[in-house]
Amino acid sequence: MAETGTSTIALSGGQSTAVKIFGWLGVVGGALLIIVGIVAWIAVSNQLRAENIIVPDDASAFQGQQVAGPLTAFVQADIINHHALEASGGATYAELDREDPVRDTMMNASFLRASLFTSVVSFGIALFAAGVGVMFILFGIALIMIAPSRKTAAA
Question: What is the tally of structural domains in the chain?
Fold first, then answer.
């Protein structure tokens, strides 16, 4: 007789119940992670929209669009850096003399870029949370499916 490569593990009624409970906890926890990820994404997007930042025409992409997502925020940070370096003759904040009047412009540009990059990271974390939520749900469903039902366990 040839083996099919499958094996069976017998679980007691309590073990089967525990596996199902952990499966449902995974499904619920995953759903919560997805909700938190969506709420965070919307909150960051709304805050960016409230600033009414429009990507300038000389940006590499998304010209004329409002900054409201990770890509537009990244492009806006890039063009701010481009404009700041243009104003400073290519020198960074740290390279400018302390008395140089352009240093304040470079400092403001640096702060703006850091804020925009923080929003880009926030979008990434929100997406990551939602992705982990999807995985939790899938693993939870798998646990629920492999745990024998009470009728099967009693037989």
Answer: 1
Q: pLDDT tens, 99-129?
A: 999 999 999 999 999 999 999 999 999 999 9
For residues 124 and 136, give the distance between their C-alpha atoms in angstroms, rounded to a whole number: 18
Residue 5 lies in a domain: no
SS3 54: strand
Q: How many other CB atoms are there within 10 angstroms of residue 79's CB atom?
A: 20
Q: How many CB atoms lie within 10 A of CB 21?
A: 13
Alpha carbons within 13 angstroms on the beta-carbon side of residue 79 total 19
Beta-carbon count within 10 A of 142 CB: 12
Flag whether 89 is in a domain.
Answer: yes
pTM equals: 0.80
